[in-house]
Amino acid sequence: MVNYKDLGLVNTRDMFARAVKGGYAIPAFNFNTMEQMQAIVMAAVETKSPVIMQVSKGARNYANATILRFMAEGAVAYAKELGCAHPEIVLHLDHGDSFEICKDCIDMGFSSVMFDGSALPYEENIAVTKKVVEYAHKYDVTVEAELGVLAGVEDDVVAAESHYTKPEEVIDFTSRSGCDSLAISVGTSHGAYKFTPEQCTRDPKTGLLVPPPLAFDVLEELEKKLPGFPIVLHGSSSVPQEEVATINQYGGKLPDAIGIPEEQLRKAAKSAVCKINIDSDSRLAMTAAIRKHLAENPSHFDPRQYLKPARENMKKMYIHKIVNVLGSDGKLAQC
Ligand code: G3H
Ligand code: 13P
Ligand code: ZN
Predict the structure, then answer these.
(1) Given 3-state DSSP classes, what are the helix, strand and coil percentages for the chain, each rounded to the nearest 5?
(2) What is the pTM of this model?
(3) 58 lines ligand 1 (CB under 6 A)
């Protein structure tokens, strides 16, 4: 059993309380590789932002949870080495799908876990979330739960009403499960194709797709039911069109990739949304830089030659999100 406090990590409780009060959101960036971890830490240190480094099932399969845990421990040391005396870094399990995986992660030093029971019947979601909370709280680990189903491009209707988190359920769900934060569904979805072209309109000037807005009315209802309670927004990549264009220019094929416009994320961050999950934008930043570098330097074969610009591009993107979208820059409790 490793306690996250011994690794220099923190849970989400205090940073979420400050974010809700301050009208900003904490960035939750997924990581699978050393370059992503380095870019996240450099960005968080340069902007003096708290940060959540999260590990998905795909990341555990790719990199191994133990290795990622050691990387998070290294992230704390690296942040200090970069001059940040009191970094606030959370190691979070993203979309844990069983009590066992949540327990495993808590036991190996994660400071926060998500139990995603959104696909389960309501009562079962409460029961497993509660079991995770009871275990996690023994070690002061915080727990994110999920209620409502994230929209998918396969839906006929854009985020049909039935998929949204139901405001009438959230008081019962949070009080009975004891979760520390709640992931909700208000029209975002995972990946780089959040909407089909049919679900969007087209800007007549640029020809670019304009996605439908998030359900801010539902978000407001949720806030009214749970004043001050930390709300989490998954599927929050904005899918920068310049990265998509670079990828397509240098041999990629991402037709009509589309995300959530940043002004909508900015608006969400000012509300009770205090954690914003971003993964796809990091993938796009990395891939765009690698494709460009290799196309322009066909003789290069040392991974450091193309991973360096990839890391730089991700760092630039993380800093942009922190400063211009989430507003978590300068929000460390102590510098
Ligand atoms: O929530 C989804 C994240 O983007 C992680 O996806 O399991 O492919 O790493 P992944
Ligand atoms: P994106 O695919 O929009 O980056 O969402 C990531 C996410 O929600 C991870 O849990
Ligand atoms: Zn997610």
Answers:
(1) 50, 15, 35
(2) 0.97
(3) yes
